[in-house]
Amino acid sequence: MLMKYLFLFIYSLFIQIHAEITPPNYDFNLSKIEIFFPKKSFEEVKKKHPEIKIIEDGGDSKIYFIKFQAKEYTLDIYTQVKNEIIIDVYIRLPQYFHHDLVLKELQTNYKKQNSFSRKDGSALYTWLNQNGTNILYQGSCSITCFPMFLEIVSNESGITPLYKKFNQAIPISK
């Protein structure tokens, strides 16, 4: 009898050890942030996210910052807006996200990337001309791999992507 209970106790410990652990961003999908994508009206964003900060005002062209709160995570989203239409979105992804899951989501929606480049533990994935937009995704690896940013920019001429604007703000060491 004692042996039976001992076996059940050890078996229950074994089951708990091998229980499935879901990553914290298991429910991340692009449909949750689709409202911020290029060619969408910025008026809709203003209605759903009233806590918007203006970063740069260039007349008919503006850059806004939105703190997007989901159930398990928060995203820093920057949008470039021209005449109240979003032309560019830059999303700073949390480093506790799993790179593989974010990349899988992008590849599920946009198929295989057009180009891939890797340097010093970082990789840049590019999808060109996807519904009139270009998509950039950067991931990095140290002990584990994690996402850095996702940018979706309209492929209209004359648009400087936000990642280039942000990099201009970093002083170049000589």
Helix and strand layout, with pairings?
Blueprint: H1 2-17, H2 42-48, E1 52-58, E2 61-69, E3 74-82, E4 85-92, H3 99-110, E5 115-119, E6 122-130, E7 133-141, E8 145-154, H4 162-168
Antiparallel strand pairs: 1-2, 2-3, 3-4, 4-8, 5-6, 6-7, 7-8
Tell me about this structure.
The protein has four helices and eight strands. The chain has 174 residues and is α+β, with helices and mostly antiparallel strands. It has one domain (24-168). The protein has an eight-stranded antiparallel sheet with strand order 1-2-3-4-8-7-6-5. The protein is elongated. The relative contact order is 0.14. The model has no long low-confidence stretch (mean pLDDT 86).
Oligomer: single chain
Shape: elongated
Question: Which sequence of SSEs, written as H and E, runs from N to C?
Answer: HHEEEEHEEEEH
Low-confidence stretches: none
Number of strands: 8
Question: How do the strands of the widest beta sheet line up side by side?
Answer: 1-2-3-4-8-7-6-5
Q: State mean pLDDT (0 to 100 scale).
A: 86
Short structural summary:
Helix content is 24%, strand content 38%. The protein is α+β, with helices and mostly antiparallel strands and 174 residues long.
